[in-house]
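Follow-up to my post from last week.
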Amino acid sequence: MSAGPNDDPDLPVDNAARESRAMMTVRPRGFVTRALGSDLVFAFLRSRLTVVAAIVTLTIFLAAAFAPWVAPHDPFDLASLSLLDSLTPPAWENGGSASYILGTDDQGRDLLSAILYGTRISLAVGFASVAFAAVLGITLGLIAGYVGGAVDSVIMRIADVQLTFPAILIALLIDGTTRGLFPGLTREESAFYVLTISLGLSFWVQYARTVRGSTLVEANKEYVLAAKLIGLPSWLIMLRHVLPNVVGPVLVIATINLALAIITEATLSFLGVGVPPTQPSLGTLIRIGQDYLFSGEWWITMFPGAMLAILVLSVNLLGDWLRDALNPRLR
Amino acid sequence: MSPAPDTLVEVSDLSKTFDISPPWLDRVLERIPRQLLHAVTDVTFSIRRGETFALVGESGSGKSTIAKIVVGLIPANAGHIEIDGVTMGRDTRAVRTLRRRMQMIFQDPYASLNPRMRVDAIVAEPIRAFGIAHGRAVRERVGDLLRAVGLDARDGQKFPHEFSGGQRQRICIARALASDPAFLVCDEPTSALDVSVQAQILNLMRDLQAEFGLTYLFISHDLAVVRHMASRIGVLYLGRLAEVAPGASLFRNPRHPYTRMLLDAVPDLDMSGRPRTPVTGEIPNPIDPPSGCAFHPRCPLANERCRREVPLLLPAGEAIVACHAVAEGRAAA
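User reply:
Got it. Predicted complex:
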């Protein structure tokens, strides 16, 4: 490890950061400059990796959200599909076509468009399941921590049991039950809800545990006692006084869980429990491509796989940064 | 013993034990008996309208427990509390009306204000909860209250973290006054503040007492503060009252050996040269209190009877004192 004085990679970054902070503090303190000068923004700009991750994440989010306008083809429009175009390699390969930049899959769907639409589905499932898990977990954790006693024991034991079920088992269970209960429902209609509920059910425990822990601390503080003295009902005390003071850490968990939810969704779809091939998510695309991997059509699996990896990595990096920035003691 | 007509608060034979046993399964498996912490035992006192009754004692003597029981935050195991003719305990309509007339000021001004709420929302909360005012009248009342405690009405727009400890305690007082109470329980309201700020807050509390005709139950471990505030003082030792006396009389002529020990420990120029009894020993473990008089292991006057027999509160001059030595005349000053 012989590092000379000039090849220390941290030095220029540090200096630039210090200068930028000095510049910020000199400016008059309007709202925007105050936001720019805050610790969170400073920590953000200081870490190049985080900035890159944020830009990548934002680009993917936007591309997915506006897929119908951004994508060169509509992969769901059966009329525009032609089996003659199937298994076209990427544009730069021999036999590639300029209109299918990343090639096509076995049904002649443009892969780039399919990836954009698939990311859309993956993100929608991810956000919905994180929201579901957060609402469920926060509610149960708040009640467990505030009410305590037997209620606390019951909720937390259920949480312990919940942890022993893997997401895929819950997904299979719910998938089967839904089909049994609503025989007329097609996979296309039910897949989104089945995935959201099963992912939400497998992730709520983390929220519940975190919120319960903070609630135990907050509920004994004197401002909660003061609210009790006024005779406010328990639900109002929980909602108005305890909840705003315990949701901070939830933001961090939610960000990290989003990456986890996307990857679990891909796993489930890859295994065939998730989104059907007619409306492929990233996991479904990877599964379709896997059949052709050894016959030379590598692009059908590789590009969705790369997309998934980049997306999950970026979101994870953002989550890690958020955790560090909001909680200096962890550094 | 019917309460005098000017009595606002009547507390009789109040007892509270906390169950600190290990969980049931551990107890059964390891054959450990239940463990009870006797926080408060047979405490009886009454507070007259408009006076300040102070409870003093060391840490762990049960002061705060009594305060929380009196306002109804925790239930008592035994005893009877009557406030303004209403018996506390059952959640009747009368008790709910009473809640409005009874508020509490807490020890830690940093934990007693919700950090996510603006000050005017904090002070307005009791007003809205009890339906005292509606609409614009709420904001006016909040402004009046903030001015009454020496803050500016515009301070209502700020968050608690923008205030110092003393200012926060003023906000707490404003919140306590918001429901127009007659009785305020103050649990060490100044012990978390700087000495200079303590005096300001205490003077504010005295002014407000005169202005609104408030009755205080004042909990403190600081004898100098109590001397400034209290009309009558109860000295607690290990959950029992050792002595109850009018403020001036207690400081001039302490009777219980524990009271004397406490007063001798107060730094005071007037006391220079007088022989002092140093405070010896520590307050015993309330899980396993000493037999007889709980103070006997630390008492210079203890004899065989003190070790056997729990002393009762008996009149001695202006005071009532729970001490065999005082009752027998052994404690001649």
